[in-house]
């Protein structure tokens, strides 16, 4: 939604909707074994969800849907909460560690 509003077309949606990002993640695994008796069955999940980005935080919620019986039989849910420390504390944690006080845009050596 942020890309749609800034680069394609602004649909005039509320700010709450414009801060949402729909996502779909896919995770698959196929084990490799050295024995003939163990199977090499691919397992995985499809994770559709939504991310809401605020000014100083991000909240995400995804469903975890198994792709086959070996991956599981129930649908799960996963959530994330991220804080942007550099935006929360711009004068302490948000400052660069190795930076000069003035940046003239000129090379360090020479004119």
List the helices and strands and how they pair.
Elements: H1 2-8, H2 15-18, E1 20-29, E2 43-53, E3 57-66, E4 76-83, H3 85-88
Antiparallel strand pairs: 1-2, 2-3, 3-4
Report the C-alpha radius of gyration, rounded. Answer: 23 Å
Average of the residue pLDDT scores? 81
What is the string of helix and strand elements? HHEEEEH
Helicity level:
10-25%
Give the strand content: 35-45%
Q: Report low-confidence residues grouped into runs of 5 or more.
A: none
Q: Distance between termini? A: 45 Å
Number of strands: 4
Largest sheet: 4 strands, antiparallel
Shape: extended
Structure class: mainly beta
Separate helix tally = 3
Strands side by side in the biggest sheet: 1-2-3-4
Keyword list:
4 strands, single chain, extended, 111 residues, four-stranded antiparallel sheet
The gist of it:
By secondary structure, the protein is mainly beta. It is built from three helices and four strands.
Task: Provide a descriptive summary of the structure in words.
- With 111 residues, the chain is mainly beta.
- It has 3 helices and 4 strands.
- The protein has helices at 2-8, 15-18, 85-88, and strands at residues 20-29, 43-53, 57-66, 76-83.
- A 4-stranded antiparallel beta sheet has the order 1-2-3-4.
């Amino acid at each position: 939604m942020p890309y749609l509003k800034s680069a394609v077309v602004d649909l005039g949606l509320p700010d709450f909707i414009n801060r949402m990002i729909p996502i779909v993640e896919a995770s698959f695994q196929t084990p490799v074994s050295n024995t003939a008796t163990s199977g090499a069955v691919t397992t995985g999940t499809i994770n559709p969800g939504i991310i809401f980005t605020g000014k100083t935080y991000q909240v995400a919620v995804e469903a975890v849907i198994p792709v086959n019986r070996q991956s599981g039989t129930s649908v799960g849910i996963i959530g994330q909460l991220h804080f942007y420390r550099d935006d929360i504390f711009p004068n302490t944690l948000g400052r660069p560690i190795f930076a000069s006080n003035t940046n003239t845009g000129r090379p360090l050596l020479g004119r």
